[in-house]
Write a structure and sequence with these properties.
The protein is of the alpha/beta class. It has helices at 2-8, 14-25, 36-48, 81-91, 95-103, 143-162, 178-189, 193-196, 205-222, 229-236, 239-253, 263-275, 293-301, 319-335, 346-355; strands at residues 58-65, 105-113, 123-125, 167-173, 258-259, 283-284. The relative contact order is 0.18. The active site is at residue 315. Pathway: Nucleoside biosynthesis; alpha-ribazole biosynthesis; alpha-ribazole from 5,6-dimethylbenzimidazole: step 1/2.
């Protein structure tokens, strides 16, 4: 199934992109004056084949999982908080719920590997195992479980798209998951761990030093192959990161745009791109995380974040704003007047064309 999905991921449609650009240039504005919104509109046309696709149903998918590496106390929060926050998501009380309501985004929550078994209404259960193993002692998971996590994410994407979702947004929950994400970054970009790691939930200098040591030890012991995304995921990753990787692949295979959130989500995007380079065609950034390694991740993907709100919460809280802008781009295409249909002078259009 994974090979089949990867084979479905292709290039952007060139003709709809040309039509979209021509349409934008004919609207009552100087060419290019809506900046990144115009770039979004053209890329969306290349993804969907439509000049103004309907993006009204937007869904953020919060993948949750626990990590064996938290036994080394590399986070200020205890592992139990993953399950506690999952309950908050389902009650509509968390940051992503508030910002999702504000931006018109539906929130879905997936148990990919929470240590505690939760039987809660609305929770999508795709649990591979109740948390990963401590990757300082060996692989975080087996290769088989890594593939299982990716396939579960693909299934979630397929189900949500079948239910009408037009944009998928990546979100995460997992105490300690900045540690595997930093490890993934260090491996894929072949950089020192010190450049990849950040302070996550706000750890002090002592814990920060331990976090670097833990990641270095995990990479040294497991020796993940940076050319093999499944190997990297299995050696130093997490089940929610694998699920997000699959979500991205599943959306790209069905030509549905994906908005990526912060540090953990972008680690998953890096793995997805490693599996299939054309995945880049379907990715939209949202914000620049306060995690220092996130800027490097964005450079790796060739993306420029739309916002810098100094956020580092995760959950998809930055991603919902990115999706809000995507829908704004489609409304410009659909609702803005053109020189041909409005009372704005054609002479002005000609003069602007010469200037710009």
């Amino acid at each position: 199934m994974l090979t089949e999905v990867l084979n479905q991921i292709g290039e952007l449609y060139p003709e709809p992109m040309e039509k979209a650009q021509k349409h934008l240039d004919g609207l009552i504005k100087p060419p290019g004056s809506l900046g990144v919104l115009e770039e979004m509109a053209v890329k969306l046309a290349g993804i969907t084949g439509e000049l103004a696709p309907d993006l009204s149903k937007k869904t953020v998918v919060v993948m949750a999982g626990d990590h064996g590496v938290t036994e080394h106390t590399i986070s200020v929060a205890p592992v139990e908080v993953t399950a506690q926050m999952t309950r908050c998501f389902l009650k509509g009380l968390a940051g992503i719920n508030v910002l999702g309501r504000h931006t018109g985004v539906e929130v879905k929550v997936v148990d990919m590997g929470i240590k505690e078994d939760l039987n809660l209404p609305g929770l999508i259960v795709k649990k591979v195992r109740p948390g990963t193993a401590d990757f300082t002692l060996g692989p975080a998971m087996s290769r088989e479980d890594a593939i299982k996590a990716i396939l579960a994410g693909i299934e979630v994407a397929k189900d949500l798209i079948a239910a009408g979702s037009k944009v998928l947004i990546t979100g995460d929950m997992g105490i300690g998951n900045t540690t595997p994400s930093a490890a993934i970054l260090a491996v894929l970009m072949d950089i020192p761990v010190e450049q990849a790691v950040g302070r996550g939930t706000g750890i002090n200098a002592e814990i920060f030093k331990k976090k670097i040591e833990v990641i270095n030890k995990g990479i040294k012991i497991n020796r993940p192959d940076k050319t093999d995304a499944v190997d990297v995921l299995s050696k130093v990753g997490g089940f929610e990161i694998g699920g997000l990787t699959g979500l991205i692949l599943g959306a790209a295979a069905q030509r549905v745009p994906v908005v990526i959130d912060g540090f953990i989500s972008t680690a998953a995007a890096m793995l997805a791109v490693t599996l299939k380079n054309e995945v880049r065609n379907f990715l939209f950034p949202s914000h620049l995380s306060e995690e220092p390694g996130h800027k490097l991740m964005m450079e790796y993907l060739g993306l420029t974040p739309y916002l810098n709100l100094k956020m580092r919460l995760g959950e998809g809280t930055g991603g919902v704003f990115g999706a809000f802008f995507l829908e704004a781009a489609t409304k410009v295409m659909r609702e803005m007047g053109s020189f041909a249909s409005s009372e704005v002078s054609f002479l002005l259009e000609e003069r602007m064309a010469k200037v710009f």
